[in-house]
Design goal:
single chain, about 375 residues, alpha+beta, six-stranded mixed beta sheet, five-stranded antiparallel beta sheet, 10 helices
């Protein structure tokens, strides 16, 4: 029931047009506001890309836009009035305008400014965030090919990290080796800084790689995403620098066994409820449910800084989306996290799954077991 959709999130802009750049004015000076975006009308096949003159060349280079309109030079980056005037002149306003209220871009002040100007032009403004995210959540065959290639690149990153791991090196050195290897394979910059975390610090899965020198006996968490045409594929594995304590090794082996359960269960249109119930029962049977961290995952797809976490979330610890299905076209990661005995850290294993028309499958070829670095 929308007449116009005005897209402002980098992900949605890219999805429609291919547009991508390194700077979206996310936390910029107030005199350089983030007001660029794409307008789509229900009765027109074309879209209109609105951008600043500073990006006029970039929009021609990296988008398929056939109607790009540049803000007047005297407005700098605040194109809200220009956008409303242009859409009114084209007969696209008034009507019902959908905006992405849940996008960080633009910020609250600029979102309210844009909404006020649409309203002053006679439009009714509504939130269309979920509509856009739901549409982006079901991937086409062409999008799947990007994700498959991203999976191949993620495996290259994990392999490079494993080869760089040894006592006496910094977490940042391993991070650098991993990112370099993925870049050499054609992988793009990931939307989240990719952590290499060692020792007890590995229990803080959202920490950042640091100058910490790794030591013999450390548990090391490596989390990465391959990226192709901004499509992400997330993989993570855990390593031990030397032979681990037997209790630690046993805990990781029990966790890894879950992947066989999932492999036998996943299929197109798998009910999320069935997934939750099956996995909880398995972990309880293994005697490790009480040691769990996050068990679940989220949608993978187009992502820009600062986040690759997609809209669809499932969490075995809760009933979120419990009545949903893993429909064909869905791509999600699966996080298998368990705290280790003796405060050794966290066993942190991530795989990405693709649900297709006739099958569902894992995308990584890298082993799930605790990688022991001799």
């Amino acid at each position: 029931k929308l007449d116009v959709l005005f897209l402002t999130s980098p992900e949605a802009i890219n999805w429609v047009s291919g547009y991508q750049c390194e700077w979206y004015q996310a936390q910029s000076p107030r005199v350089w506001p983030a007001t660029s975006g794409i307008a789509v009308h229900v009765n027109h096949d074309k879209f209109i890309l609105f951008d600043t003159e500073r990006e006029a060349v970039l929009s021609r280079y990296c988008s398929v836009s056939k109607d790009s309109r540049v803000f007047p030079p005297d407005t700098m980056r605040d194109g809200t009035s220009f956008i409303v005037d242009e859409l009114t002149a084209d007969g696209w306003l008034p009507g019902t305008v959908g905006m992405e209220f849940w996008s960080y871009r633009p910020n609250r002040e600029l979102s309210l400014r844009a909404e006020a100007r649409f309203t002053a032009a006679g439009a009714t403004v509504v939130d269309a965030t979920q509509l856009v995210r739901d549409l982006r959540g079901v991937k086409s065959a062409a999008e799947m090919e990007c994700i498959y290639e991203a999976a191949r690149i993620a495996d290259i990153g994990l392999t490079a990290a494993a080869e760089a791991l040894r006592p006496g090196v910094m977490e940042l050195e391993v991070y650098g080796a991993m990112v370099y290897a993925m870049a050499c394979a054609g992988g793009e910059n990931a939307a989240i800084t990719q952590p290499v975390l060692s020792g007890k610090k590995s229990a803080a899965a959202h920490a950042m790689s640091s100058r910490r020198i790794m030591e013999a006996g450390d548990i090391v968490l490596v989390d990465c995403s391959g990226v192709v045409k901004r499509y992400h594929c997330n993989m993570a594995r855990t390593f031990s620098l030397g032979e681990p304590d037997p209790d630690v090794l046993l805990q990781t082996q029990k966790s890894v066994e879950s992947m066989k359960v999932i492999q036998d269960m996943i299929r197109p249109n798998l009910p999320v409820r069935e997934f939750y119930e099956t996995m909880k029962a398995f972990y309880e049977g293994q005697g490790i449910w009480q040691d769990r961290g996050y068990i679940g995952g989220y949608e993978m797809g187009i992502a820009f800084h600062p986040d690759w976490v997609g809209n669809f979330v499932y969490d075995v610890n809760s009933d979120v989306n419990i009545d949903a299905l893993f429909v064909p076209g869905t791509v999600v990661n699966y996080e298998n996290q368990f705290f280790l005995p003796h405060e050794a850290g966290l066993f942190f294993m991530i795989e990405t799954m693709a649900f297709l028309k006739d099958e569902a499958k894992f995308l990584s070829k890298f082993p799930y077991d605790l990688g022991i670095i001799e």
